[in-house]
Amino acid sequence: MQSTAQPTGTAAVRELIGARELLRNLTVRELKVRYKRSALGFLWTLLNPLLMMTVFTAVFATFFKGSGLEWFPIYFLSAYLPFAFFQASCQIATGSIVGNANLVRKVYFPRAVLPVAVVLSQLVHLAMGLGVLLVAELVLYIGWDRTFDWWFYLPVLVLALVLLTMFTAGLSMLLAAANTFLRDIGEFTTVAFLLWFYLTPVIYPLSIAPPTVQTLLKLNPLYPFIALFRSSLYEMQWPGLPTVAYGVFWAVAMLAIGWAAFQRLSPRFAKEV
Amino acid sequence: MAKGARGTDELAPGTIIIDDVWESFKIYSERAVGIRDRLFARRKTVAEEFWALKGVSLRLDPGDTVGLIGENGSGKSTLLKCIAGILPPTRGVVRTAGRTASMLELGAGFHGDLTGRENVYLNGSILGFSKRYVDKVFDELVDFAGPQVATAIDRPVRTYSSGMYLRLGFAVSVHLEPDVLIIDEVLAVGDAKFQKQCFDRIHELKRRGVTIAVVSHDLDTVASLCDRGIYLQQGDVVMDAGAIEVVDQYRRDVTASQGGEVGRWEGGAVYGSGAMAISDIHMVTQPGRDAITTGDRVAVQFEVEAAEAVENPVFGLILRANDGTYLYDTNTLWRRQATGVFAPGARATVSFELSVHLLPGRYTVTVAASRSDGMQVYDWHTDAVGFDVVGEFVANGVSALDGAIVVAHDGSAVVTSRPEPGAATAAAADPEVRGA
Question: pTM score, two decimals?
Answer without folding.
Answer: 0.69
